[in-house]
Batch of 3 targets.
Target 1
Amino acid sequence: EAGVVQSPRYKIIEKKQPVAFWCNPISGHNTLYWYRQNLGQGPELLIRYENEEAVDDSQLPKDRFSAERLKGVDSTLKIQPAELGDSAVYLCASSLTSGTGPRNTQYFGPGTRLTVL
Amino acid sequence: AQSVSQHNHHVILSEAASLELGCNYSYGGTVNLFWYVQYPGQHLQLLLKYFSGDPLVKGIKGFEAEFIKSKFSFNLRKPSVQWSDTAEYFCAVNAASSARQLTFGSGTQLTVLP
């Protein structure tokens, strides 16, 4: 079974430029998550999708970040414009469902390491 | 605020030593508990998980963890570490009281010396 796929793996941009990250979850997983992981810290949730609906985006900086999950499968996370403080690893994860219980086990992709100069 | 604490930021052991990494959380009620591992240059991988039942759970590669509800702890253990266990280890908690978010600790870097 293929895991969570993300691209690109690395991205270097100058501040104020836009950037986009793509994620393809594990087949059959209805719930998709985007996390940000700063150096030396654990991942922090940015947004959670149930199928194509964003059900938890309370941690997403909406002035510059946006996300979409068209057709309830692939997802794109965008930053526009990027700032120096956005340098981090952006992780995508998926699970069968959300909530508590075994079906909420999250599986992570390799991440995109973003460097903003 | 609800949180997950990993007390050791960096642990250095020699091969064959025993390992215990601490994890404490501050959530009440029903919790699901996880340990993830990130080997150098690789993505986060699930090591083990606890949902209910036997509080001693066994994971991959000889790791185990014990859920002690009264101490709000979920410590990771391995009786004899190998050089290949060098990695960063993250404890994570999913609680009904936290809108089902998976909250991670800050991680523990384990270095095993050959």
Target 2
Amino acid sequence: DAGVTQSPTHLIKTRGQQVTLRCSPKSGHDTVSWYQQALGQGPQFIFQYYEEEERQRGNFPDRFSGHQFPNYSSELNVNALLLGDSALYLCASSRTGTVRGTEAFFGQGTRLTVV
Amino acid sequence: AQSVTQLDSQVPVFEEAPVELRCNYSSSVSVYLFWYVQYPNQGLQLLLKYLSGSTLVESINGFEAEFNKSQTSFHLRKPSVHISDTAEYFCAVGRTSYDKVIFGPGTSLSVIP
């Protein structure tokens, strides 16, 4: 089991550009959540996708958007990048349901630097 | 809404000494509780979780945490730490096991040889 995989691992973008980050969930998981972790802080919830739709959203502007594909993989898109968007972006996958084994597992993250 | 407080931002401790990392949460509904660990330049790893049942939960590497509903706490303990335990530790809550997770600000554990 490869677990949660994210790509790329590192990325440098210029202010005003757009970026797409990718995530493949752990085998058997159908739910993908994205988090932003600024340096020295705890992760902040961006949004969650389930059945190819955004199910929950945190307090992030519309510049942050996402997508989930039929194979449960997901993309995070950020438009009009700001210097403050520099952070570690974490993807977590989980399985919606009531039985054990549904909790979230995290990928290694994508380090985004905006210059 | 839920929130998490981790009272200590940094905890230095000597090798083989005991350690406690404190976590308090606030929620108007029942929650699930988690501790995640983050090693330098890595993602988050689930250390242990409380979903239901026994209030004392243990991890495979010697950590344990006790859910105290009356004090809304979920403190993490280890009786004897190792150098390899040096990492950032995050306490977190969620409404369900698969729901969004609300994280605390983290506690940096530094184990001194």
Target 3
Amino acid sequence: KAGVTQTPRYLIKTRGQQVTLSCSPISGHRSVSWYQQTPGQGLQFLFEYFSETQRNKGNFPGRFSGRQFSNSRSEMNVSTLELGDSALYLCASSLVSAGVAEQFFGPGTRLTVL
Amino acid sequence: TQLLEQSPQFLSIQEGENLTVYCNSSSVFSSLQWYRQEPGEGPVLLVTVVTGGEVKKLKRLTFQFGDARKDSSLHITAAQPGDTGLYLCAGGESGGGADGLTFGKGTHLIIQP
């Protein structure tokens, strides 16, 4: 079974631009979550989508948004990029088992904002 | 807000040594997961523990969930260079769902040959 895929793997943008990242979950997984990982803050939860609906949202500004399509693929968008948005953005799909969400992560998209 | 603190933050030891890393919180979690992340890759799930006092073994790795479900430990026996990586613990709240996962900042482990 193929794992979680993310595109692109690397991205360089300048301040003020916007960016869209893509994630394809494991086949059969309907939940997709997004995380931001930085050396200082670690892994921080952005939001989770399930059946095309945002189910939960972390504590990030409205510049961060996402959506999920009927085939469970998900995109996240960051508008008006800031230097502090430079990070590894990870997507994870999950199969809730016995009430426990086990996350299967993709390799991430490394975003650098100049 | 639930917080998970991992210690030590960095650990560098020689091949063949044993080590233990810790994951502590003042909050109770319904489950605790351990992940390992290598440079340039996403975290990979190692184990999930759900019962207080539970111990799980994965080859040379032993995971324990505290009796009160507030803490966990990962013990590695006879560490090998392939164990090098960032070890993350994540606590899950009851009801499941991604919102229930709180990640620690991780322990950077380096095993020197």
